[in-house]
Amino acid sequence: MNPSDYTLFYNSATLTAFTADQLWALFGIDIQTISIEVLNYQGFYPVVETPITADTGLYTATPVYTVVGDIADQTWIYTARPVPTAQSYATSEVKATANQEVSDIVAISGYSAETLSAAGAALEVDRPAVYQTVIAAEQVVTDQLALDVAAIAAATTVDEINNIVNPPYGVISTSRTGNDFNDSSYITFYSTSLIEDDTELFIPGTSTVIPYILPTQFNGTSEAFNTGDYLVQIREASTGLVLADFICPDSPTNEDVPF
Questions:
Q1: C-alpha closest to that of 63 among 15, 111, 27
Q2: Is-contact 107 100, C-beta < 8 A?
């Protein structure tokens, strides 16, 4: 092992990690020439770093180091920031995201924001379809923003806020047969603050709730859909917060659908 291949070095006496420059300035250790055996003897261990996976606007991240042989593994402990601090940060984040989405819609349309604003001032029945399509897409974004801002303001924990700003993502294996929902399950599910067990599927068209129940996860349900409406929402079961949605495919076997 070559110490110069690493950028951080954990000291077991001070419980602190140092950069190569700090090792030289503070301890006179040159990682370009020192052997791993001598480095370890002096109480230093090259760090195998891991990325921070939580949103640092919502959580503080504190590194923890565990010596394993001649190296140190790095992990992180996440601590929620105060709820008001998290709410302020999250509100700014969802606004910025929505602003960018609307800007992208306008850019793709080829119309200027001023043109769309002028068209939006007209009654919808009098509005040319070429404008209405773009304005409707913008409205979807702004409506969701209003819901997100309200949900952030009403949240009582940082985990709730995180699920709004950084909703879970993954892949679900699912399908339907006509209007019947078939047994479905997650292939992957990623979240820093929510577990699979606290999710449910909701079919708005028929107000059907499909709870998470092992071993199947989401059991099949007859006549779960109205013909032509195959939208499925993934919700946080404890709060009803919509985390994602997808269109359920009509297929003889389950398909992998990202969310």
A1: 15
A2: no
Q: What is the number of other CB atoms lying within 10 angstroms of the CB of residue 198? A: 15
The two tokens of residue 126 are 């009098």
Given pLDDT bands bounded at 50, 70 and 90, which one contains residue 153?
very high
Please state whether the predicted TM-score (pTM) of the whole model is above 0.85. Answer: no
Question: 3-class DSSP state for residue 127?
Answer: coil
Tokens of 118: 């002028």
First-last CA distance in the chain: 42
- Strand 59-68 with 16-19, pairing: unpaired
pLDDT at 225: 98
The contacts of residue 98 (CB under 8 Å, 6+ apart) are 141, 142, 144, 145, 148
Quick: pLDDT tens for 174-200.
999 999 999 999 999 999 889 999 999
Cα angle: 234, vertex 236, 241; to 5 degrees: 85
Question: Is it the case that residue 122 has pLDDT exceeding 80?
Answer: no
In degrees rounded to 5, what are phi and psi of residue 96?
-65, -40
Query: Taking the mean position of all CA atoms in its chain, how far away is CA 248?
Result: 22
CA distance 210 to 213: 9
